[in-house]
Amino acid sequence: MASKSEGGIGEMARTLFWALIIAGVFRTLFFQPFWIPSGSMKDTLLIGDFLFVNKMAYGYSRYSCPFSSADFSPCPIEGRILGGEPERGDVVVFRHPIRNVDFIKRLIGLPGDRIQMVNGVLQINGAPVKLEDGGTFSEVFEPQGPEKRYPLCRNEPVGEGGDCQSQRFLETLPNGVSHSILNTFDGTRADNTPVFVVPEGQYFFMGDNRDNSEDSRFAQSIGGVGFVPAENLVGRADRVMFSSAGKSLFFFWTWRADRFFKAIE
């Protein structure tokens, strides 16, 4: 006859088992938590933003399951199933085509598009996008997040604790989606690129922080992203749940009150 303690341990194990199963199903089918570790999407997303990725938006692929990689996935799916098409301007989490890590960027180029940067201005199918002055983006020049990286400043040099500035513009894509972008430096290799023709079944992504982003403007062989296959899309980022300016999400005294449930544009 089992003792009360043995029965209690067994009940706890069963509860934990089903809790993990439910959490795994929820994370696989509906929403995946994601934390912003870098400044590549400023000022749309800040280091320390915490969000849930909508996995229903584009359907499911081998990368929908937790612990999936290019070599193994618990999800035996070929291509994508049950999904809608991503739209230009969506903020998307995707699996890097080479490195087994998730990235978050803005979808700029659809299959068949011709994408180019000319003097810092995005060109889509030969036409420049609309840009409007968005003022100045300012932040404190100090280590940010767990990696303790300093931000890039247009007004450098800036001393510790000083006002670090970048130009901000409102960029409007051909389908009418508008969002802010940052410009820190002029005349970089990212400001003038060749024409990229997006292959069928793949996408072209860029960070909103244009001078501080590893994205499709750079080949995978030199640390970039290159073109991203459709099956690598994980989901769409719709809303910031909360945000921490400190080095840990658990430092609640560093949470940014103005970013609770903030819609991602």
From TrEMBL:
Molecular function GO terms recorded: serine-type endopeptidase activity; signal peptidase activity
GO CC entries: membrane
A single BP term in Gene Ontology: signal peptide processing
Catalytic activity: Cleavage of hydrophobic, N-terminal signal or leader sequences from secreted and periplasmic proteins
Compartment list: Membrane
Predominant subcellular localization, coarse grouping: membrane
Transmembrane segment boundaries: 16-36
Pfam families: Peptidase_S26 (PF10502)
EC number: 3.4.21.89
Ranges where the Peptidase S26 domain occurs: 11-240
Gene3D superfamilies to which the protein is assigned, alphabetical: Umud Fragment, subunit A
Keywords: Hydrolase, Membrane, Protease, Transmembrane, Transmembrane helix
PROSITE patterns hit by this protein: SPASE_I_2, SPASE_I_3
Catalytic site positions: S40, K105
CDD domains: S26_SPase_I (cd06530)
Entry membrane topology: Single-pass type II membrane protein
Highest taxon, organism lineage: Bacteria
NCBIfam families: sigpep_I_bact (TIGR02227)
Homology family: Belongs to the peptidase S26 family.
The protein, known as: Signal peptidase I
Record organism: Rhodobacter capsulatus (strain ATCC BAA-309 / NBRC 16581 / SB1003)
Gene for this chain: lepB
